[in-house]
Design goal:
homotrimer, 7 helices, flat
Chain lengths: 366, 366, 366
């Protein structure tokens, strides 16, 4: 899709200078950009790569001296990632969903599919399921029975939507994502060892042989508008109520959300993060990669949980936490400073013990 | 499915009081319960929600003053989760597997499918595979060749069973769960860097370029009765012997079990937990969410591994462990107490150094 | 497949002794080996199991006294795992891909499939996609449009390859593995809370409601030769450039590789490890199980990251790191030694404070 610099600048609401009628066909990193590419040189660091490439036009930072970079035209991006979103949307080649309902798809006679649906081969749509207009559904997808899905959704190959789930508009299910696996909820007839430990915080307990009985999930999963679920990620259904994901929330690949979780709006959950059963997550919460959130706890609005942190207890709104166990960010940074020199700290204590209590003390007391 | 309070109490072996002929159609949380719901008010905390809802009947704790809660009838649940399992089973609407073998399923002529099987569209059953009676298999499932599966299993959409795997009765494979991916087992012609490090516990080593050669998995996966495998979870096949999962073991979503693992009976493995290759896990072991178990180690019977712990070494039977690296629960709780005030501890040591060795000492020694 | 001891030894380039014409049909662990099995008794520890089994022949370590073990023949393996790779390849029964293109597969008329392809039922190959000769593709696989795949690849059930991805020869995609999910890349119109925290390393910040806008992935995934991707693992596509995986790199089950990642050759990434977006990983890097690599960092050649470590910052070539946060191996082992006795260290400091500053000091200062 060729575009002139002028067209792009206009579409993105950005200013441009130079040969505004120069045409580009795609975006590229500066070092690998050919003459028809718009180089993404949005910081001086990235712009350094222009010399190795052949770009004639680039997206640059506000005030950049684009002529000195050997360019013929430049678009100014004061907020580079925001401009990147615009340019990527404009140049997106999209995916090929086949243009209609494939003859080898299976759509149950009682299902209702909205206008302009594209549905790939070997995709199965179950009884009484309703899908809104504009659906783009790839091959090998399963939507089970009694599901309600909004308008303009995208379901990539291998995406699964379980029975009775309700999903809003513009949902994107990445390949092999799962909505509506059963909740992981079991109980033993008599209290189990784990229950003892939770009650007593003690590792000493009686052993007993017991079988796990399943607590069936009567609930489903309810998802708002504009939600995305990453590849190989999973959201389990609720026990009595539904598991709920608020509008605007984005979930990365290989994530897991347990049964009964209530997650708010506009959250972001990065790769391999997990939220255990019955946790409640506020709005605009950011869970970085590999984060773990304990079951049954509450995370307030606007909380940021730093990379690979483990959150075992409630976090009040607005707080940034980090670590295992997670603490306030500032506390954790202090803790980590000391941790790194823990062996030295230990040696200092030994030296102090020797000085204060005498040579024997270190050996005696440790 | 409407039921009277009397019917439910009788089926669950519980006592009830009040309007025993009152009819409910489903279970609900107290705050959102309508007049036809059985509210699950099994603790005073949950019961507080009754005022916001319209429930006429509830499941309550032993001795609860249900009349004071404005109810017309109550069922008493001395062990609420156990009663919950009963009520959820009774009210479970189940899943729609289509009632028979779908014409668009592929069943290899040499496969043997037991009586009363339900098999969805685009599901493929491979050569010589035997599946017991009562199977409920959704759409888009793959069961490869030479598999043996017991009676009354459920395979949800996208579940995969690899060649030569053997699975007992009542297995539940959640959506996109995988049994029988190849073991992750590779070797370099000469010792690799990782082998050096394991041998010497030193990070200093010679670098050398080598290719990884695959060790084919000759083994399969053998699974007992009453096992469940969660959405997007994976169990790899063994190298020479089979990977084994004992009867009654339940595995949550997004879990991984490596090649050759021998896991016992009635274990529970929560979301995003992983067991590395050749580890042996006893019976009734509980691995909480995000737990990591090292390869080639042994975890004894009845061990409980707390949330997000990393277990690098053997754990004797009956122990509860926590942390990274995992230690006995009590030890870890003590460690975490100190960790949280580590910066203060460090400051105390600095003050002691100054008092004992003089001002210069802190700067000198650190 | 029966083989004589002589045949096996010759094929593997190993020496053998005893009844060289003795025939074995499969490999087994010593304790469970029948009379027709080759027992893998490659260490004295494994050989101890021979007494419980019925093996007549075994693979043993160099110099082992095989006659004293009651064997009739032995093959000597000076590097057991290397010999294991050979024997497993020789005895591998392989998988049944059906011998040709299944009539219930869908291959788009514009796709080009190389000679000798085997393609299972309900597998979909998209428009303009090219697959090299010798492909073995199971049931329920999806290869999207404009994909290029080399020779002799194996795609197991449920494997997904997204649009425009390029994959080399001998790729193995395990069940439900995903190549080419969209990158997880979003931006808010104004700086988000997370950006503030990164900029200031402070948890204090203004709250504001904003929506996440998607940055479309224009890039795809480019994979070299001899790469393997594990069950339920995922590699996301790049934003402007492709996500790249070098030749010879092996990735285990339930792993995640974010958008734009550049991973070198002959790396090994073990179960549940994750690499966040835009990280660069050198050649021959080993990421052990459950490892987390932060976004935008650089890991040099030959780095080894120990089990469950979290790497937040660059790691120079050749280093072995461990822990959370990861440090040099030796440092971490020292840190862990002190960690384990941290409560005692704390008590020592309290005793010192009392001795030096008086009884009141401990209470006052803590």
């Amino acid at each position: 899709m060729p575009h002139t610099i002028a067209e792009i600048a206009r579409a993105l609401g950005l200013s441009a200078e130079g040969a505004l009628d120069l045409t580009i066909t795609h975006a590229a990193e500066p070092a690998s950009a050919g003459p028809d590419a718009l180089a993404m040189a949005t910081t001086p660091k990235y712009a350094a790569g222009l010399a190795q490439g052949q770009a004639r036009a680039a997206m640059v930072w506000a005030g950049a001296d684009w002529r000195a970079m050997g360019l013929q035209a430049a678009i100014f991006a004061p907020r580079p990632r925001w401009a990147m979103a615009g340019i990527c949307e404009m140049l997106d080649p999209g995916y090929d969903f086949g243009g209609g309902v494939h003859p080898q798809a299976f759509i149950h006679p009682s299902a209702e599919i909205g206008a302009d649906a594209q549905i790939g081969p070997f995709t199965s749509i179950g009884p009484r399921t309703k899908i809104g207009p504009g659906a783009r559904i790839a091959a090998n997808v399963t939507v089970a029975e009694d599901v309600v899905i909004g308008a303009d959704v995208i379901l990539h190959a291998g995406a699964r939507i379980g029975a009775r789930c309700v999903i809003g508009d513009r949902y994107i299910g990445q390949p092999n994502s799962v909505v509506g696996g059963c909740g992981f909820s079991f109980v033993t007839p008599e209290p189990s060892g784990a229950e003892d430990v939770r009650a007593t915080l003690s590792g000493e307990r009686l052993l007993r042989a017991q079988k796990w009985h399943r607590i069936q999930s009567l609930g489903a999963v309810r998802i708002g508008d504009d939600v995305e679920l990453g590849a190989n990620s999973s959201i389990d259904r609720g026990t009595i109520r539904d598991t709920v994901i608020g509008s605007g929330t984005k979930i990365d690949s290989v994530c897991q959300i347990g049964h009964n979780v209530q997650m708010g709006e506009d959250c972001m959950m990065c790769g391999m993060a997990g939220v255990a059963g019955s946790a409640r997550i506020g709005n605009r919460v950011l869970l970085a990669g590999k984060v773990a959130v304990n079951d049954n706890i509450f995370i307030g609005d606007d909380v940021i949980v730093g990379g690979a942190s483990r959150v075992y207890t409630n976090v009040p709104a607005g707080r940034t936490v980090l670590g295992d166990p997670a603490t306030k960010l500032e506390t954790q940074l202090e803790i980590r400073k000391v941790l790194r020199r823990l062996p030295r700290l230990s040696a200092h204590v030994a030296a102090l013990q020797e000085a204060v209590f005498g040579k024997q003390s270190v050996k005696d007391k440790d």
